[in-house]
Fold this protein.
Amino acid sequence: MTIYEFARRIILEAGQNIKDKLKLELTIETKSNPNDLVTNMDKETEQFLADKINQTYPDHRIIGEEGHGSDIDTLEGVIWIIDPIDGTLNFVHQQQNFAISIGIFKDGEKYAGFVYDVMNNNLYHAIAGKGAYLNDRQLATLQSTELKRSIISMNPNWLTKDWTKDVYSPIVKDARSARSYGSAALDFVFVATGIIDSYITLRLHPWDFAGGMIIAEETGAIVSNQLGEKLHPLKSNSILVANPELHHEILNVYLMNYKDELENLHQGMFSSR
Ligand code: IPD
Ligand code: CA
Ligand code: CA
Ligand code: CA
């Protein structure tokens, strides 16, 4: 069994475990603020995946949102970057619209990405260089769109804060429409399937983007930070993902008007995870 086949098997098992336990009462704790939640299912799912990987591949390294690999800062070998539940607020409030995300890198090169929309039983997956799939269906190469004919995804919170509203409201205003899904991993794969044309956000951690980035790039999406720079798999960053024409338009016609502000922000915020 390849690493890819193994990953596919364990992400589906992890999703089934979540479904099996959905009716049980959750233990919910807060992390950095009252709206930053973590549940026992986030922790159990990360542990389940880590145990499976460690048993089969003891030399692989694991980074997860809920604590695994917090000391890892180099890219050699095989690294699994895991978000056990992306969209925890959706999981707690809606019991849907959340995903398990896994990105696998070999010596710093993309190897495979998985985003499992558990409740819809939709597995988005890709091996780098071999195309992206939704379940058994290969995803088409993205069509180009202009902003005025595009649906973008963005958290509306960015439109409520002092200077970020100046940066992002012109983009929302000029787009055909905007959406907010509450799961970064799903936002990436929604760009990959073309149901939205761009996802823009100011801060994601590696586990939020690792799986989705590998899948989206297989469909021709451009994934960068908001200065147009490539993402580092181990570092938090801002995000702009879109089909190539739209990525170019949002970056050059909109974000570059705030280049100095964005550069200052990136220097302060994104030196680590
Ligand atoms: C969050 C979701 C959300 C994004 C946040 C992430 P979590 O991940 O992806 O859509 O806006 O920045 O932290 O905490 O639910 O895994
Ligand atoms: Ca979280
Ligand atoms: Ca996340
Ligand atoms: Ca999470």
